[in-house]
Amino acid sequence: MNPAEPAAPAEPAEKVWIEGRIVDAAEARVPVFDRGFLYGDSVYEVTRTYGGVPYALGEHLDRLEGSARRLGMTLPPRDEIDHASRETAHAVGGEAYLRIIVTRGSGPISLDPGVADAPRLVVIGMPLKLPPEHLYTDGVSVAVVGAKRNAPGGLDPQVKSGNYLNSVLAVAEAHAKGAFEAIMCDSVGRIAEGSSFNLFLVRGRRLITPPLSVGILEGITRRHVITLARRHGFAVDEGYLWPVDLLRANEAFITSSVRGIMPIATADGHPIGKGRPGPITLQLRDLYEKEAAAAVGA
């Protein structure tokens, strides 16, 4: 290489913030006595970057604090988590997927949370890999599965914790049925949410999404989509839905922080509407992506 030529930019790489510094992913280590590993005793958030800036990071940290408060867990200072998240995103190089995790810490093997030493902050940053574009243009398949969402009287559904086994089983069941994703119901059979996403149905110019009272996490993307849809003249209702309502919808889509708005084409092998993404879903996706990019100045 000619010494006068600038060095080529580094390829995007997986980076992890742990123990107060950024390391390559292969170097990151968590003790086996960490309660996140032993019991899923942890809280977490996931977001992505637009133009290298973590999207809606403040809202994600608000929800992280809410999850920790409900579990009686102490978090590191918010400024530290914010700094670690932004630095990790920058270290990845290019657009990044971010997973922000705080465990209760390490200690003797005991269910007693009081034996934990100090909270452990881990931020995982990876080059952003979005689903293939054809899934947005063609839509995805979903299946209503037997795995249930946690009842509101058990683990608070507003806690986004590392205890995710029911979602793991839900995805496994959906894949066994040949579906891309899983739709989970509550204990009486009403649609709750997906394995890691919220659900919207479209009837005419009206959007319907399950209410928080059915036992779902208040999705940040869900919140933004409700606000965005109402601003552009769509009615949005939060109402109880049953699996049959999914099959009767004109359109349906899922929402999550990384996937944004993703259309559903079929449910349990049956077409939703015409079996392809509908005009309202596509319009809202375009509006959402533009708004997200503008929000971070991308």
Question: In terms of topology, how is this protein built?
Answer:
Layout: E1 15-18, E2 21-24, H1 35-39, E3 42-50, E4 53-54, H2 57-70, H3 78-92, E5 96-103, E6 120-127, H4 133-138, E7 140-148, H5 165-176, E8 181-185, E9 191-194, E10 198-203, E11 206-209, H6 220-231, E12 235-238, H7 243-248, E13 251-256, E14 260-267, E15 270-271, H8 279-295
Describe what is shown at a glance.
This protein has helices at residues 35-39, 57-70, 78-92, 133-138, 165-176, 220-231, 243-248, 279-295; strands at residues 15-18, 21-24, 42-50, 53-54, 96-103, 120-127, 140-148, 181-185, 191-194, 198-203, 206-209, 235-238, 251-256, 260-267, 270-271. It is α+β, with helices and mostly antiparallel strands. Strands 7, 8, 9, 10, 11, 12, 13, 14 and 15 form a nine-stranded mixed β-sheet that branches. Strands 2-1-6-5-3-4 form a six-stranded antiparallel β-sheet.
Based on secondary structure, the structural category is alpha+beta
Helix content: 25-40%
The mean pLDDT is 95
The beta-strand count equals 15
Q: How many angstroms does the end-to-end distance come to?
A: 33 Å
| Count of discrete alpha- or pi-helical segments spanning 4 or more residues | 8
Overall radius of gyration: 20 Å
Tell me about the biggest sheet? 9 strands, mixed
The general outline is globular
| Beta-strand content | 25-35%
Low-confidence stretches: none
Compressed to H and E, one letter per element, the order equals EEHEEHHEEHEHEEEEHEHEEEH
**Quaternary:** single chain
